[in-house]
Amino acid sequence: MATDMNEKKDIFADMVTDLIRRAVEKHNKGRLSDAAGIYKKILEIEPNQPEATHLLGVVCHQTGNHEQALELISKAVNLKPDNSEFIGNLATVLADLKEYAKAEQFYMKALELAPEDATMYSNLGSVFNAQGRANAAEKCLRIAISIAPNYAEAWNNLGNSLKDLGNRKEAEKAYRKAIDLSPAFYIAHGNLGALLKNMGRFTEAIKILHHVTINAPNDHICWNNYGNVLSDIGRFEDAVSAYKKAISINPKYFEAYSNMLCCCQYIPSVTPESLEEIHKEWNDKYASKYTKESNTCNNNDKLILGFVSADFGRHPVGYFLVKFLESIDKNRCSVFMYSLRTSEDELTKRLKKTADKWVNAVGASDEVLTECIKNDKVDILFDLSGHTGKNRLLVFARKPVAIQVTWAGYVGTTGLAAMDYLIADKYQVKEGTDNFYSEKIIRMPDGYVTYDAPEYMPDVLELPALSNGYITFGCFNNPCKVNDEVINIWSKILIKLPESKLLFKFNGFDDNGLNSNIIKKFAKNGVDSSRIIFEGKAPHAEFLAAYNRIDIALDTFPYSGGLTTCEAMFMGVPTITCAGETFAGRHSFAHLSNVGLTETIACDFDEYVEKAIELAGNFEHLSCLRKNLREQVKASPLCDGKRFADNLLDVLLHAS
Fold first, then answer.
1. pTM as predicted
2. What backbone phi and psi angles, to 5 degrees, belong to 53?
3. pLDDT in tens, 235-248
4. CA 138 → CA 62, 135, 160, 644, distances in Å?
5. CATH, domain 303-450+644-655, list 2.160.10.10, 3.40.50.11380, 3.30.499.10, 3.90.226.10
6. Residue intervals in the chain for CATH 3.40.50.2000
């Protein structure tokens, strides 16, 4: 009798083994539904069969059902607590759920059981990357590579950590090594393309990313990156198509939709009406399901102001924010800062000193960050990103505080129904256009930001035209702002002043493909290429010093200069501008107005050309402007941090 029972057990075990073998074959061939069906059949026979439980969880993870995957693989780990593979896959699911701290713990446990497992080290490195711990990530990934030198994924992940550390050249080498090892590993191709885009090597980036879209057409992240580089060179319609492709592949991919909204700000035909419509669509698609009216009253002794941003450092947001925070009256409020920045610089350190509480929120899920803000009893929460990179608008959609404000980091409405206010001024948002914003407009009495020049700001030198004998115009704006209409207007100026030259300087203006395209457009208008000068990325101090080589800055449209115009004025260089209709088109108009340099503001493009020519013809006046403009800026509301801070607190107290 006992023998019969043992025989039955053996037969049963053989049957389960055979079923698992058949399921794994289908699983490996990508027939996930068929594999899942067999795993389920096994579990009907033996509910606690660990391999089937684990592998069904893997299928759930692969098909996007992460919660079910977590439940199943957790059960498998409980059934076989010493199985490093199970534990590692559990960590991977937790990482995809952005439970990075828990994922780290399980990867560490898996490595205790399998200390030579390169995959575990590589995945742990990715978790460190996601938490903004790039140094720890690099160490992990180099261990992975030492164990498995030909492990393409580890090289790719190393590239990610090196990129976050600012070591772009070594990051490029790591991505290329991954590609050499595995030419069909298109994630590495995509990461390399995104890196080259950020390095201003647009022509190379487009070639690589286009290659990925052909060979991995369902890679939504690559389509998004492709859209980003197309946008950067001004191919906005193609960029929008790429973003839409990314969204069609993964409808939950709200980042691509946000990037599309940013891209639309640059399109010459853009209107406040069209922007309001597409931003509202973003809210309806991604944010409306979270929106709940908060009636929270924290009854704090003084206001607690919370600020959420990935740009607490050398970034326009940092330069617009620091003087305000250093001047704010701490008897009236406390400052809590939720940083999403993966690296720190000197400006980050200054900003940190202003905070009563500094929270490193890199890697925190929206749910975790929302609870953190609630627990901190913040009264007024500031979004400093809008739809720019690493934004957390879906935290704001959850309405963790009673009053939410968007400010400084974006160019107009977020479209978010849960956002209460947008801080502007009488110049940035035209009277009568408030209905194109989902937020209520707060108009500051002066400008809507305050500016602090870096400590390494160069001295202002003599007007270059005095020694050159001709005017050098300049554009130190992002290349994507230089559209056909801009070139046509600037060509009229250059033709009227045949000895003048135009200097372009920004990241990307050393890309031959980009420059060649711009030269061709000027040539069509009769402007010789010898008059156009291109210079690419440079350290910020060197970039600022280049203003000493131009006489007049020419503003772009429909997206005007923001920080660029502030820096130009501080270097004694006036900017010719024509105020647009959108928020993005009125930055220079606002900054020039607040400084009192209204003579360079045109009512239309004919006057824009006239003002540029008139100013260029008066070296004496230009020279006088140059000598006095920095002091004029420093004495203006634009640089008065105390005045701005007091005004903003008064406005906020009234709003609360």
1. 0.92
2. -60, -45
3. 999 999 999 999 99
4. 27, 5, 9, 42
5. 3.40.50.11380
6. 464-639
